Task: structure prediction
Amino acid sequence: MPPGAPPRCYADRSFAPGAGVSKVLPGRMTAEIDGDFVVFLIGMRINRWWKVHKWWPAAMAMPRMIKELAAHPESGCLATDGTFGTVVQYWRSFDHLEAWARDPRHEHWPAWTAFNKHVRASSGDVGIWHETFLVRAGQFETFYGSMPPKGLARAGRLVPITAARHDARQRLGT
Result:
């Protein structure tokens, strides 16, 4: 993302019905992104499939949240990959992520409070989890071989791997 460009959140729709196949970029590529960023992994596990009334609302909330983030680049969400089971998001900062998650005007807060009210006491019918990683500028490494833009490459820039950045250690600068 160019310096000063507004943050944006792209949802990975490559497996959505009718979406077609994302364009494969041949060759060896890596991602670049300016500044610090946050990697947020979130997911759910259906423990009792027959209790659809418990897990269905949680499963349906995530697509709404992803759509909302894509429509509001000011949220600070840079990219989203995945749609069910595990979702990976890239955020400009933890402050952006927390502000969006705790704002009752956005999709997440009502879904979270409803989950806690109706499911949390359900003795394990559906599990949810998340992990948050704060990544300092330049403290990451990526590789994409003959792939469409994916992951961090969608949050930042996809660039060809040069001789000076041939292997993972070189890309990390160590």
About this structure: The chain has one domain: 25-172. Confidence is low (pLDDT under 50) at residues 1-8, 13-20. The two ends are 24 Å apart (CA to CA). The longest helix spans residues 52-71.
